[in-house]
Amino acid sequence: MADLRSIGALTDEEFQHFRDVVYRETGINMSEMKRALLQSRLQRRLRVLNLPDYDSYRRWFDAHYDEELMHFINAVTTNKTDFFREDQHFDFMLTDALPALVKKGQDRVRIWSAGCSTGEEPYSIAMTVHEFYEGKVPDVKILATDIDTQVLETAQNGVYKAESLQDMDVGFAKKYFQKGTGPNAGLFRLKDPVRSLVTFKRLNLLEFNYPMKGKFDIIFCRNVIIYFDKPTQKKLFEYMYDFLDDDGYLFIGHSENLAPLTDTFRCLGRTIYRKVV
């Protein structure tokens, strides 16, 4: 086993090499401030592969690129999320977006959670849908995508630790989660009526040949574009526009802003937009 205490820090050359790979394969632009983060994430691969230093890993990576790439991406991508994070979006779904679809006579609803991480976002969407339709959910499907196969596996399992639910109303948690017992004590599993609304798929947003054929009524793309440069952000939202149905809704992250990127969406409130036709 490699002694990670003795490997030192990433050299400038090593940092530049790996950040170039990150940008090329994911579109994420890692600034100098992310050097320590990248270093700590790569240590996971050094440990798994029993390699003594970053240069050894670089040479091993280059020699096994196709085999290692997915592990590399899984290691370096960030996946912090919570249930009902930025709750104004879910409130808006309940009070505005879903009622507007009903008013149009629409009982077929398609929603996309782009960059879904470990599943808290799409499951929060699913619980919101379930609440709105009072359990009698019509033809509603939620697509949840992420580049990281490990977080997608967690999401598909739909099992979470107690601390993940600590900010959720107790009655609400009991309604939608099954409490584990015995060896599963301290774990909570999403109940099937919610889990069945969500389909998880791996998708690299930067490949720009998305396989989805239909359009979406609502797209969540939150806290994703902050890692991309401006030209990539602009292109991404051009694709989001094309994949939204007329008058569809787009939700972005609390620190993100569409104004400098595109005029094809109308701002309805804090980080809530609607497609301009």
Q: Would you spell out the secondary-structure blueprint of this structure?
A:
Elements: H1 12-26, H2 35-49, H3 54-63, H4 65-76, H5 88-103, E1 108-114, H6 120-132, E2 139-146, H7 149-157, E3 159-161, H8 170-176, E4 177-179, E5 187-190, H9 192-195, E6 198-202, E7 216-221, H10 230-243, E8 244-252, E9 265-269, E10 272-275
Parallel strand pairs: 1-2, 1-7, 2-6, 7-8
Antiparallel strand pairs: 3-5, 4-5, 8-10, 9-10
Helix pairs in contact: 2-4, 3-4, 5-6
> What series of H and E elements makes up the topology?
HHHHHEHEHEHEEHEEHEEE
Strands ordered across the widest β-sheet: 6-2-1-7-8-10-9
* Overall radius of gyration: 20 Å
- Specify the structural class: alpha/beta
Globular, elongated, flat, extended or rod-shaped: what is the shape? globular
How many strands?
Answer: 10
Care to describe what's here?
With 277 residues, this protein is an alpha/beta fold. It contains ten helices and ten strands. The strands form two sheets. It has a seven-stranded mixed β-sheet with strand order 6-2-1-7-8-10-9. A three-stranded antiparallel β-sheet has the order 3-5-4. A hairpin with a 7-residue loop joins β4 and β5 (187-190). The protein starts with 11 loop residues before the first helix and ends with a strand.
Write a short abstract of this structure.
The chain is 42% helix and 19% strand. Helix 2 crosses helix 4. It has 277 residues and is an alpha/beta fold.
